[in-house]
């Protein structure tokens, strides 16, 4: 599967940064490949193709997930009045990053980006291009370690935990197997949010897969070299326990919000759930 803006000839790898393992695939670089980026390596592309064997429309899913991010952040900045954003699993910079969307609506917005891929850290300067009235910072950390994120001095210097904030976890938690205790991780993060805060999540779903397709998906994920776990709508809904879902609730990312009437693929072609919820 070629990226949407792929080159005409063979893909030429970027120069590998010193000390960074490019022989093991990473979700951020694989996602970069699906979005048509150039900051990925052979291991990432091989992993991406392994997933595409079972889910040929995975690139569409990645693009639709990114579009959902744009709409959700736009809603939070323009309608919900949120001025602080914590983006976990930020990935490699591309057009329409969280600070660009939020600060276009409210220049005073403050954003913390977090990712565990050291290559993302090398590109973080473009994520720190804040307006003078706002602020951005980047932290290399794993979303499975909420304590490090919540207590890190750079995070606390950028956002105020006593004020409402948007916690963004797009296409992140499906990389947490049950052994990673994902419900506990997300609950620890949301417990730390002030009332009036929001959780934005998307997650790959098994809802549209037959038993045969689900089994093939499991095999493909093993071949991809990156742990991955699909979840049903009911399983995804447990992450929002105690929160107030914003209309239209838990839906395909292509259907949030409901007033979106743009042409889009069928939900089963995307197989990605999304939701925005408010902490009372």
Radius of gyration: 18 Å
Class derived from helix and strand content: alpha/beta
Main sheet record: 8 strands, mixed
The number of strands is 8
Task: Explain the layout of strands and helices.
Layout: H1 27-34, H2 42-54, H3 58-78, E1 84-88, H4 98-105, E2 110-115, H5 118-122, E3 135-140, H6 146-151, H7 153-158, E4 166-170, H8 182-191, E5 198-204, H9 211-224, H10 233-237, E6 244-245, E7 251-252, H11 267-270, E8 272-278
Parallel strand pairs: 1-2, 1-4, 2-3, 4-5
Antiparallel strand pairs: 5-8, 6-8, 7-8
Helix pairs in contact: 1-2, 2-9, 3-4
Structure description:
- It is built from eleven helices and eight strands.
- It is an alpha/beta fold and 280 residues long.
- β2, α5 and β3 form a beta-alpha-beta unit.
- α1 crosses α2, α2 packs antiparallel against α9 and α3 runs parallel beside α4.
- The radius of gyration is 18 Å and the shape is globular.
- It starts with 26 loop residues before the first helix and ends with a strand.
- The N terminus is likely disordered.
